[in-house]
Every structure is written in structure tokens, then in C-alpha cells.
Amino acid sequence: MTEPMIYYSHKKQTGVVLVISLIMLLLLTIIGITSMQVTGLEEKMAGNYRDHNIAFQAAETALRAGEANIFNIVALGAFDGTNGLLGDTDDLHDYSAATTWSSNANSIEYIPNISGMTTKPRYYIKFLSTGVDSSAASINISSYGNSNAGGALSYFLVTARGTGGRDSTPVILRSHYAKRF
User: Fold this and answer.
1) If exposure means fewest CB atoms within 10 Å of the residue's CB, which of 26, 69, 128, 141 is most exposed?
2) Among residues 127, 119, 120, 125, which one has the least CA distance to residue 106?
3) What angle do CA 159, 101, 81 make, to 5 degrees?
4) Confidence at residue 180, expressed as pLDDT on a 0 to 100 scale
5) What is the number of other CB atoms lying within 10 angstroms of the CB of residue 48?
6) DSSP class per residue in 58-85
7) Of 157, 52, 50, 65, residue with least CA distance to 113
8) Residue 17 φ then ψ, to 5°
9) In 112-128, which positions are buried (b, 16+ CB within 10 angstroms) versus exposed (e)?
């Protein structure tokens, strides 16, 4: 006995495979677009971090150059409000303003060996006051090994600004420095 043959009509096929494959392609497209956006965002974040790091290094080198400048000064007469050397009666500048740091400003330009910068870092040195160090403890002033306590100390404020690959990434650093003349 032979089995009866069953014939399927092509009219009953509704294209379910086509619909499912289109949905799968849509999901894969959404996943691909999302991963590209995340990768682009991560790349921007890494670039901004690098730019900020360059700006920080530039400001740090300018700050150290300012401290070295103080170390080499032999008299307080140079702090007359010109050439980035502010006296104790000179007003502090608005260090957040970009014009304070322009090339025509009264700041001191420093040329470090840092690649990726667009603008050279600059710094100001402000003489704050002279006071007597009456501490009995040893203190390091001006250089390592100069640790005699007592005597007159001159106090300074060094303010430095550096930028990274863009001028819109400024970093401003400050340090206090003391020296015996």
C-alpha cells in the first residue's frame, strides 16, 4: 500500500522568513550604529584627556621655570610690576581671563620641550612679603641642603598657565616659594 502524497500549496506561504530576516538585519544595524557612537565618544574622551595632560605638563614646567627664576634673582628690586614680576603693592591679575596670558601681556613666556602645544606657557611671579623665620625646626628654602632656621624670608607666589593642543584647554597652577637673600 502506498502512502498518499500530500501536496502543499504555495499560496499558504506568508513570507515569515523574510520578515524575521529583516528584523534581524535591523537589530544588527542598530547594534553596529550604537557601537560606532560609543567608539567615537571614547575616542573624544581620550583626546580630551591627552589635551588636558599636555596643558598640565606645560603649566607645570612654566611653574618650575618661575621657581628657578626666583632662585636666580639676587635682589627684590626687579619686582616693579613689569616683565611678569609683580611687587607687593601690584594688584593680582584676573588669571582666568585669556587676555592676561596673551603675548602682549606682562607675563613671562617659557619655551618648554613639549610636543602637542599650540601656545607657549606663561607665568607671573608676585613678591608677597618679607618676614622673619623664627622656627626652631629645620626648613628647606631655595634649594635642598639650605636648611638653616631663622633669618629673613621673602615669600613669592608663582602663577603659571599652560594649554594643550587647543587654547580652549587651559590649566592654571600656583605655588608659594620662599627664599633667603
Assistant:
1) 26
2) 125
3) 65
4) 78
5) 14
6) HHHHHHHHHHHHHHH---GGG-SSBTTE
7) 65
8) -65, -40
9) bebeebebebbbbbbbb
pLDDT of residue 37: 92
Q: Are 164 and 57 in contact (CB under 8 A)?
A: no
User: From CA 63, how far away is CA 166, in angstroms rounded?
Assistant: 20
- What does pLDDT average to in each consecutive run of 10 residues of the chain (181 residues)? 66 76 95 92 90 92 91 82 82 81 78 81 89 57 53 86 87 89 72
- Judged on CB neighbours under 10 Å (0-12, 13-18, 19+), 166 is middle
pLDDT at residue 164, as a whole number: 86
> Of 128, 109, 129, which Cα lies nearest the Cα of 119?
109
Confidence at residue 96, expressed as pLDDT on a 0 to 100 scale: 82
Cell of 137: 625646626
pLDDT of residue 172: 92
Q: What are phi and psi of 108, to 5 degrees?
A: -100, 130
The pLDDT of residue 1 is: 58
